Amino acid sequence: MSYTHLTREERYQIRAMLDANCTIRRIASVLGRSPGTVSRELARNRGLRGYRPGQADRFASERAAASRCRHRITKRQWTELSRLIRLDWSPEQISARAALEGTLDISPEWIYQFIYADKAVGGDLWRHLRCQRKRRKRYGSGRDRRGRIPDRVGIEARPAEVDTRETMGHWEGDTIIGKGHRGAAMTAVERKSRLLRIGKLPSKSANAMRQVFRRRLGPMAEAVRSITFDNGKEFSQHRLIGEDLNSLTYFADPYASWQRGTNENTNGLIRQYLPKSRNLETLTGGEIRMIEHRINNRPRKCNGYLTPNEVAYNKREKLTVALRS
């Protein structure tokens, strides 16, 4: 008689008999299975809250899916796939970039199965999946209470080419704040390529912001044509920032974060590494370099699955070559 895997119904039977204090031998006898089969089921598919039939059935399905796919890829490809996931590439990014380079035909769904099968046996690849949190809307009375910014030029005066992302050199600037307002960092994102620059702020003063912009964007000032800020007072020296970088400066409308969607989205990516619970006074240069490297070398759907670095510097890299069989 050929072996068949336990069914979902059998797993519910197991749970019911466990609740009735039945022994493993009794459960096996009722199911017509060997005691070893029942024992392995309880050992392999038990969760943190004990044996739950729905969860157990999912664990078994995920493990089976990973096992089927394991025959399609080599151990080296298996290792490389894990490496890319640990670099925080999403399954969609891995699949699309591998297709772009012609290295491996692999679907996002298979990669998700791989990740959750790894989780089922105690792995931690799932921790590298980005959770989508709902954005909290900011409501105001219609009046901006953050004070006047001298020489402010509104976003309505910005050239149309900035909106269409047809040309390089148009940036968005923002600030991320640490827990309890302890520490802050400047973020700047180029709209076309999504290239990121981060700078730790010694304070939230306008002069500190100017110095960090000059330090981080100064070496590439020829690639800075405009910067669009939010209405925080730390950007009140925007005119001097523009002079330092020979660029134009604009401001989004108050409480209209969607007008700087590139920066808002990138700040969400940064928060994967610098959560809101983090005190940014302890932020180090090494951490900043790591975050920039991860995000600037990650394929982006909006870039046709090229990385921000590839778009910004017009240089293609082979990022998934190790996935080739």
Describe the protein.
This protein folds into three domains: 8-66, no CATH class; 75-129 and 319-323; 155-283, Ribonuclease H-like superfamily/Ribonuclease H (Nucleotidyltransferase, domain 5, 2-Layer Sandwich). Helices cover 42% and strands 9% of the residues. It is built from 13 helices and five strands. The radius of gyration is 26 Å and the shape is elongated.
Secondary-structure map:
Blueprint: H1 8-19, H2 24-31, H3 35-44, H4 53-70, H5 75-86, H6 91-101, H7 108-120, H8 160-164, E1 170-177, E2 184-190, E3 196-201, H9 206-217, E4 226-229, H10 238-245, E5 248-251, H11 261-270, H12 285-296, H13 308-313
Parallel strand pairs: 1-4, 4-5
Antiparallel strand pairs: 1-2, 2-3
Helix pairs in contact: 1-4, 2-3, 4-7, 6-7, 9-10
| Strands ordered across the widest β-sheet | 3-2-1-4-5
Count of domains: 3
* SSE string, helices as H and strands as E: HHHHHHHHEEEHEHEHHH
The N- to C-terminal Cα distance equals: 37 Å
In helices, the fraction of residues equals: 40-55%
Number of helices: 13
Strand content bin: 5-15%
Look up the CATH topology of the largest domain.
Answer: Nucleotidyltransferase, domain 5
What structural class is derived from the secondary structure elements? alpha/beta
Mean pLDDT, rounded to whole units? Answer: 88
Q: What CATH architecture of the largest domain would you give?
A: 2-Layer Sandwich
Rg result: 26 Å
The CATH superfamily of the largest domain is Ribonuclease H-like superfamily/Ribonuclease H
